[in-house]
Design goal:
17 strands; binds nicotinamide-adenine-dinucleotide; globular; 10 helices; single chain; six-stranded parallel beta sheet; nine-stranded mixed beta sheet; alpha/beta
């Protein structure tokens, strides 16, 4: 008999839907999971949106007030998929109420917010997961395994890039993402957070960094009503963009490796161009999210003119076998969230962490704070040792 685990989702925009679908699918892919998530309730402030989500996805109840969830004994685990400014308040309240939390990146507006949620989770003894989905891609796990096994020799340098056009349109609405008070940082929290987690996941802790940031679209139109995702709002009254569109950052890893992380949300012609290149003394590995199930690998002892092969990930890589029976049957973005859900629920069932947790969020947030500080004072910043 598999125990049921009551789930609540708070904030039903893009990520609310993706988390909900991940809970619905997780046992299809991981039938041995000793917990059965049950969609109990959904909270959403836009009138009608929670009811519509309940109707479509099968939550038992819907509410406009997330605070009701802290007191709801049916709920044992919560997805926090509301905008960044709510992560801290909701995360701390849910942990204090004894609920396990799966919170979207970047976990609040700053490193201090991420630490507050991490402290509340640790104090309450509940489990956590953080939405660093790209590290769940089987190809990324396979790259990490190659690096850890020394197949590339010693890692020398790394490039991580996250270019997107989601904010490139001049009519892109001035949503919470562009405000300090509700979004915090801009592309730092939105995309560089993923890049920082990937860099740490592959190469280890970042010791110091030097960053430069820029705003390229300084004004946007205020939306007339509720938004979700990356809405357009032509004709609205213009308002200022308060956070950065672009970051370029030099990294020094604790291992001595060097790196470059570049992220931009206004890159015309770049649709989710996310990826990395990791170079070592004997080889290299390349990954591009748009070809998520492939790795390009160069290894051997030739050094110069050493060939690069394309490897299609397969059932031996990461959690690929839970989705497809053979290499080159493609997995997609939503599958990464199913893996995240699996690791979150498994950590609840077994009482130990699997996948990215709030500890990873705190480390990534510390690097993002350091990038902001470095850009502000135009110099290198050391990160606290872990
Ligand atoms: N892991 C990823 O790849 C990824 C991708 C996109 C967004 N995110 C993160 O997910 C979070 C949400 O992003 P999104 O793209 O889904 O945003 P979104 O704007 O599409 O959705 C946010 C939802 O929260 C709702 N909301 C706002 N205030 C609320 C409140 N007080 N109570 C309940 N609901 C409230 C909004 O009405 C909206 O429906 C952000 O923290 C973002 O950084 C992660």
């Amino acid at each position: 008999m598999v125990d049921a685990l009551g789930i609540a989702v708070i904030g039903f925009g893009w990520m609310g839907r993706v988390h909900t679908q991940a809970y619905s699918r997780v046992r299809h892919h991981f039938p041995r999971l000793p917990l059965r998530p049950e969609l109990v309730t959904v909270a959403e402030e836009v009138p009608g949106r929670a009811e519509e989500a309940a109707e479509r996805y099968g939550f038992t109840t819907a509410t406009r007030d997330w605070r009701e969830i802290a007191a709801d004994p049916r709920v044992r685990a919560v997805s926090i998929t509301a905008p960044n400014f709510l992560h801290r308040e909701i995360g701390v309240a849910m942990a204090e109420a004894g609920k396990h939390v799966w919170v979207e990146k970047p976990v609040g507006l700053s490193g201090e917010d991420a630490r507050a949620v991490a402290d509340a989770v640790a104090k309450a003894g509940v489990r956590s997961a953080v939405g660093f989905n790209y590290r769940c891609a089987p190809a990324v796990e396979s790259a990490r395994d190659l690096i850890a096994a020394g197949e590339l020799g010693a890692v020398t340098h790394v490039r991580v890039r996250l270019f997107s056009d989601y904010a490139a349109h001049p009519d892109g609405a001035l949503t919470w993402r562009y405000e300090r008070a509700r979004g915090g940082s801009g592309v730092l929290g939105d995309l560089a957070s993923h890049g920082t987690d990937l860099a740490r996941f592959l190469v280890g802790d970042i010791a110091s960094l030097a960053a430069d940031t820029a705003v390229f679209v300084p004004e946007r139109a205020r939306p007339a009503g509720a938004t979700a995702g990356h809405a357009l709002a032509s004709g609205g009254a213009p308002g200022p963009v308060e956070n950065e569109d672009y970051v370029n950052c030099l990294l020094r890893f604790a291992s001595g490796a060097r790196g470059v992380l570049e992220a931009c949300r206004v890159s015309v012609g770049e649709q989710n161009n996310y990826g990395f290149e990791v170079h070592g003394t004997r080889g290299a590995v390349f990954w591009n999210f748009r070809r998520m199930n492939e790795l390009r690998v160069s290894r051997g002892t030739t050094y110069q003119d050493q060939p690069v092969s394309t490897v299609y990930v397969g059932p031996g890589d990461g959690e690929f076998a839970a989705f497809q029976p053979g290499a080159a049957n493609a997995m997609g973005y939503d599958d990464l969230k199913v893996i995240e859900a699996y690791r979150f629920l498994r950590s609840i069932a077994e009482g130990e962490p699997y996948g990215a947790t709030l500890t990873d969020a705190v480390r990534a947030a510390a690097a993002l704070d350091a990038m902001a500080e470095s850009a502000e004072r135009r110099g290198w910043v050391d990160l606290p040792a872990t």
